[in-house]
């Protein structure tokens, strides 16, 4: 019986071939829009590091800009790792602190009138006439605010420089819905969205991403000690193995559970996330009232007639 660590060998990729496919994808998708540059958020993590290296290879270092978007609680290590990536890849780097934007949202006061009193946050006193947004923000909510502030910045810079916003979410995250709509899940193209975390690490080593970035625990850097795997409740190795067996190999969940190679509770976790988070992988549904409904009966690819 294979353990997940042993079984992960089935996810091994031909790094040279994948690089050729992905860099061709980047170049084609960017240039056919009339642009020749890419811009991305540099978090100091492995996914954005790999995307930076791939964009550099596809478009040339002078045509790639990595943007550090720190919040006041961001780890100094994240900032230094992002700078390390930019220097090693030879790409341009900008820094824009989103603290004022995020704290401005948190400090704003929301005032109720009679028409909207029914939409008070749960737990608010019946007599409350207003509340500060910051009082409602859990770590999860704050993460969404920060992700959207960062993407707002990237898209503004994209418009100024006529460059393509490039996503950095991997396949594991996309399948599990581990991302923020209109935040880190907003982008023009995504070069690594079909690569599991295991494969991202493999390709990152092939491209010479610094080892300290490859081996550190992935984190959204929301608060000290926060990690992706802590949020998800499983290691990326466990998740990648289970997801590959369920999604790519299309194995029957019941038979897979009976084999003992994947924990039944992990199978159930993955299936529930895949199904419940499908809305994050699609454009919003439009009600059909005609014979040609966008994204339903009218499904031309985005580069049609270009």
Automatic annotation (TrEMBL):
Pathway: Cofactor biosynthesis; NAD(+) biosynthesis; NAD(+) from deamido-NAD(+) (ammonia route): step 1/1. It catalyses: deamido-NAD(+) + NH4(+) + ATP = AMP + diphosphate + NAD(+) + H(+). Residues 22-284 form the NAD/GMP synthase domain. Its EC number is 6.3.1.5. Keywords: ATP-binding, Ligase, Magnesium, Metal-binding, NAD, Nucleotide-binding. Deamido-NAD(+) binds at residue 148. GO terms for molecular function: ATP binding; glutaminase activity; metal ion binding; NAD+ synthase (glutamine-hydrolyzing) activity; NAD+ synthase activity. ATP binds at residues 41-48, 168, 197, 219. One of its GO terms (cellular component) is cytoplasm. The keyword Magnesium applies. GO terms for biological process: NAD+ biosynthetic process. Mg(2+) binds at residues 47, 173. CDD domains: NAD_synthase. The keyword Metal-binding applies. Belongs to the NAD synthetase family. Homodimer. Catalyzes the ATP-dependent amidation of deamido-NAD to form NAD. Uses ammonia as a nitrogen source. HAMAP family: NadE_ammonia_dep. This is NH(3)-dependent NAD(+) synthetase. It comes from Candidatus Wallbacteria bacterium GWC2_49_35. The lineage of its organism: Bacteria, Candidatus Walliibacteriota.
């Amino acid at each position: 019986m294979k353990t997940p660590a042993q079984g992960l060998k089935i996810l091994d990729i031909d790094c040279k071939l994948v690089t050729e496919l992905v860099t061709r994808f980047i170049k084609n998708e960017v240039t056919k829009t009339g642009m020749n540059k890419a811009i991305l958020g540099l978090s100091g993590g492995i996914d954005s590091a790999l995307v930076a290296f791939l964009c550099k290879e596809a478009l040339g270092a002078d045509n790639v800009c990595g943007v550090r978007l720190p919040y006041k609680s961001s780890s100094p290590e994240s900032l230094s790792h992002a700078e390390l990536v930019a220097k090693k890849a030879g790409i341009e780097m900008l820094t824009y602190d989103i603290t004022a934007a995020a704290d401005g949202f948190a400090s704003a006061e929301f005032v109720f009138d009679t028409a909207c009193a029914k939409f008070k946050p749960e737990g608010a006193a019946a007599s409350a006439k207003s509340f500060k947004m910051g009082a409602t923000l859990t770590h999860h909510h704050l993460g969404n605010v920060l992700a959207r502030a960062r993407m707002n910045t990237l898209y503004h810079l994209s418009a100024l420089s006529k460059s393509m916003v490039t996503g950095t979410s991997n396949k594991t995250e996309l399948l599990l819905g581990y991302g923020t709509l209109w935040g880190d899940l907003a982008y023009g193209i995504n070069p690594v969205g079909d690569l599991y975390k295991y494969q991202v690490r493999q390709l990152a080593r092939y491209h010479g991403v610094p080892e300290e970035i490859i081996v550190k625990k992935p984190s959204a850097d929301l608060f000290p000690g926060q990690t992706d795997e802590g949020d998800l409740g499983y290691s990326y190795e466990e998740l990648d193995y289970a997801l590959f067996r369920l999604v790519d190999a299309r194995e029957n969940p019941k038979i897979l559970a009976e084999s003992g190679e994947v924990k039944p509770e992990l199978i159930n976790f993955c299936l529930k996330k895949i199904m419940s988070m499908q809305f994050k992988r699609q454009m919003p549904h439009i009600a059909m009232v005609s014979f040609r409904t966008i994204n339903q009966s009218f499904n031309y690819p985005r580069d049609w007639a270009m």
